[in-house]
Amino acid sequence: MPSSLIRSARPGDVPLILEFIRDLAAYEKLLPEVEATEEKLRATLFAERPAAECVLAFAATGAPAGFAIFFPNYSTFLARPGLYLEDLFVKPEFRGQGIGKSLLLHLATLANARGCGRMEWAVLDWNQPAIEFYESLGAERKADWTICRLSGERLRQSARPGPGVHG
Amino acid sequence: MPSSLIRSARPGDVPLILEFIRDLAAYEKLLPEVEATEEKLRATLFAERPAAECVLAFAATGAPAGFAIFFPNYSTFLARPGLYLEDLFVKPEFRGQGIGKSLLLHLATLANARGCGRMEWAVLDWNQPAIEFYESLGAERKADWTICRLSGERLRQSARPGPGVHG
Questions:
Q1: Distance between CA atoms of A8 and A55, rounded to whole angstroms?
Q2: Residues of A designated catalytic
Q3: Among A111, A113, A146, whose Cβ lies nearest the Cβ of B162?
Q4: What are B3-44's pLDDT values in tens digits?
Q5: B30, A77 contact by CB (below 8 A)
């Protein structure tokens, strides 16, 4: 496996992070869902208390090759924190060089160092190369669980008027 | 809908929280997976920086009826934080009184107040009453995503030796 470098993202990397997010969304056929902007990424990833962490992977040539965004989650059954991997992406032209694996193992190492009981992420059912890659690393698929989501207008409508709201 | 009270859990509620976790695990047929203890819950939920938040619901009689455990997550596509609901449980004898709905709407209100773009959770495919309940609230099921998990020995084996480890 050629050597690759992985390092934490810095504020100056925001344009690159946005590029990766858009590349990933295009690959997942979800580009219309992307509302991220450089400004929003800067405000959430590089705040005093960041909402998530980002690591970048570079190819042996120094070219930016991929990224991962993650944050802590929590398992009630274990009563321990875990690590949730929100996004993992390697540019098509850098695939097959072990960069995705390096990113995932980097995060597994972080998860262990932080005392996490488990590491979790979600995969699209049609993304067979990703599924095979994850299974080769020993990940199990929780096929009997489905993710539910309340968002946008439906989330806003579900909110009760707060103490400061009259009407 | 009879009135019910929802409040944030306090350190003195830890025995009750553990009872709810075990009740939920038994319902989900996952009791053998529960490693939580009062000590572990206290250390993670009531630390200076808690790993998750817990709210409790009480019936009109004052009896503890249910709970929810949640933490912030992050959407890269929105570049906004979200709210992830790890567990929601209402004791069987208190179901049908709107307590589960009150808990979920309480969290939706919190999510809105905190500027979250979405609220997410996972449901077991065979849990038809829960699925119907969530759909009645306008939640969508992300049926094309599957959760992957690396845990226990497999997670430990995936970790690379850190700078302090030789061998």
A1: 4
A2: 134
A3: A113
A4: 569 999 999 999 999 999 999 999 989 999 999 999 999 999
A5: yes
Residue from A119, A149, A147, A145 nearest A134 by CA:
A119
* Pair of tokens at residue B167: 């061998």
**What is the rounded distance in angstroms from the CA atom of residue A117 to the CA atom of residue A110?**
12
Tell which A residues from 8 to 47 touch B, by Cβ distance under 8 Å.
21, 24-25, 30, 33-37, 40-41, 43-45
Enter the pTM of the model.
0.91
Alpha carbon B17 to its chain centroid, in Å, reads: 11
Per-residue model confidence (pLDDT) at position B160: 75
Tokens found for residue A2:
């050629």
Mean pLDDT of chain B: 92
Interface confidence (ipTM) of the complex: 0.90
Please answer yes or no on whether A111 and B148 come within 8 Å at the CB atom. Answer: no
Q: Which two tokens stand for residue A118?
A: 């488990």
CB within 8 Å of B33: residues ≥ 6 apart: A77, A78, B25
pLDDT digits (tens, 9 = 90+) for A146-164: 999 999 889 998 887 654 3
Taking an 8 Å cut-off on Cβ atoms, the answer to whether B146 and A142 are in contact is: yes
Q: Which residue has the tokens 């920086």?
A: B49
Best A3, A45, A74 member to test B by mutation, with max B CBs in 10 Å, is: A74
Residue contact B33–A141, C-beta within 8 A: no
DSSP string for chain B? ----EEEE--GGGHHHHHHHHHHHHHHTT-GGG----HHHHHHHHSSSS-SSEEEEEE-TTS-EEEEEEEEEEEETTTTEEEEEEEEEEE-GGGTTSSHHHHHHHHHHHHHHHTT-SEEEEEEETT-HHHHHHHHHTTPEEETTEEEEEEEHHHHHHHSPP-TT---
